[in-house]
Amino acid sequence: MTEHPNIIFVLTDQMRSTAIGCSGVEKVITPNIDKLADEGTRFTNAIANSPACTPSRANLLTGMHTLSHGLINNDMELGTNFRGFAHCLNDAGYNCGYIGKWHLGDIDRGAFIPPGPKRQGFDDYWAVSECNHNYYAGYVYINDNPEPVWLDGYEPEGQTELAINYIKEKSSSDNPFCLILSWGPPHCPYEMVPKKYLDKYPIEEIGLLPNAVDSDVQSTESVGRTPEPSAMTKEQQDKRKKEIIAGYYAHITALDELFGEISDAVKEAGIDKNTIIIFSSDHGDMLFSQNRGWKSKPWRESVGIPLIMKLPGKIPAGKVTNKPISMVDLMPTILSLTGVDFPAEVEGIDLSDFVCGNENSARESVFINFPCIPKFFSYDEWRGVVTESYTYVRLRDKPWLLYDDNNDPFQLKNLVNTYDYKKIQNDLENELSKWMKKTNDKFETSEAIADKLCPGHIDYIVPCTCNEKIVEGQKARSKLLV
Questions:
Q1: How far is residue 405's CA from residue 382's CA, in Å, rounded to a whole number?
Q2: Does residue 461 lie within any of the structural domains?
Q3: Do residues 322 and 44 make contact, with C-beta atoms less than 8 angstroms apart?
Q4: Closest C-alpha among 342, 329, 331 to residue 91
Q5: Is 450 among the domain residues?
Q6: Lowest CB count within 10 Å: 54, 76, 341, 349, which one?
């Protein structure tokens, strides 16, 4: 093994921690991801600190918590004043490439991010779209070219082909490389996936998680479909839920097959012994659990993310651990595994000793938060902690949620303010207070935070746009598909 191993970080969007076959929870077909778990370590308590795309991606690249980097909601631009993940690697001689969804650069989701500081150090190769979830009209801007390069077929397939080409090219280089491959699925549209994968999930065989059985379809999960959720019978509700989950699973199985191609490319290039492979997601998806949809919520389906890490000879093979690790910890941890220094101001901590097998060096808790909740949400801003055993969350004016995650993994019973858990709740409240002091979090209102960090916001979020060139290009490709 050379001094600095290569890094391949495969990042999905909105994939929850239990939506892989090896979790034993949801019946998803993921043989290649399961194989990675056999060859590396799976972290069952990996957490997205602020579970939405832009905040979480900024957590990852900066190693900072959300109020520190300032990206409190989607479609905000990451400042160029951070010495982030790729900058540190560049200083150590790494070539850094990024392929796929970025979502850190502009309110225009079709924007070309020009070469320079806004690319956050990913200067060796750039094949990126700011934010696209039309999986049959995918495109990337490649390197210095301000014109979009359209991808044929299912978007992740084209992105994976670019990734494999990059791996082949860099495997013969004298310098180590880091590649982040950022796929858009299984984020909705849930059924915009090749039929051969949908066929693997017959509706009658789809099961709902115990905390989703009595839930309703959310309007945001059923955009453009009739009947509207409010007009659906219970039978229609159940069918629609299963159709959506089948699409979600189909996306994951499609990605699993592509992940297998990445794994094969690494082996064929002869770099598998000296490459850190990481599989994860920016956040999860409620998918009807707790009668909620999407993300930005404190329940496990939203904050819990898959995390599998492999580095032969250093990261134990076939190990499963439930000790907590979070998105902000990944930057310092991965850099430490590669022998690269990280800035002193980074708020995540180096958990490389834990990743390499020492359970005693794990964190006691991780901080979860969503400091600025858009007005249309049905609850307010929240803060919380996740430990090996518990999830505790509070609103500004009162404790909100307490779950015994070991004995109640689907978080069916809220134990907040119950007599038997009074001491545990007090201990977790103290732990949360320490986190808020450490991150200088004064628990201000969403309005106050948006006014400071989100100029031009409407109801605490910045309205996103998509430029005409991309919109017209996608319309044209949609006509061709028809």
A1: 19
A2: no
A3: yes
A4: 342
A5: no
A6: 341
Q: Is 178 annotated in the active site?
A: no
Helix (H, G, I), strand (E, B) or coil at 180: strand
Q: Determine which helix (DSSP H) or strand (DSSP E) holds 168, and give its type and residue range.
A: helix 155-170
What b/e string do you get for 332-348 counting C-beta neighbours within 10 Å, with b at 16 or more? bbbbbbbebebbeebbb
- Give CA torsion, residues 114, 117, 121, 122, to 10 deg: -10
In a domain, 314, yes or no: yes
pTM, rounded to two decimals: 0.97
| pLDDT tens, position by position, 181-230 | 999 999 999 999 999 999 999 999 999 999 999 888 887 788 778 888 88
Distance CA 106, CA 114 (A): 11
Question: Which of 4, 22, 53, 178 is labelled catalytic?
Answer: 53
> The domain spanning residue 324 has which CATH number?
3.40.720.10
Question: For residue 248, what are the domain limits?
Answer: 6-364
Q: Is residue 121 part of a domain?
A: yes
The structural domain count of the chain equals 1
53 is catalytic: yes
Distance CA 69, CA 57 (A): 11
High-pLDDT (> 70) share of the chain, % = 99
Query: Is residue 178 within a helix (H) or strand (E), and if so which, with residue range?
Result: strand 177-186
Q: Which of 4, 69, 87, 103 is catalytic?
A: 103
The DSSP result for 457-478, as a single string, is: -BTTBPPPB--HHHHHHHHHHH
A 10 A CB-CB count for 224 gives 5
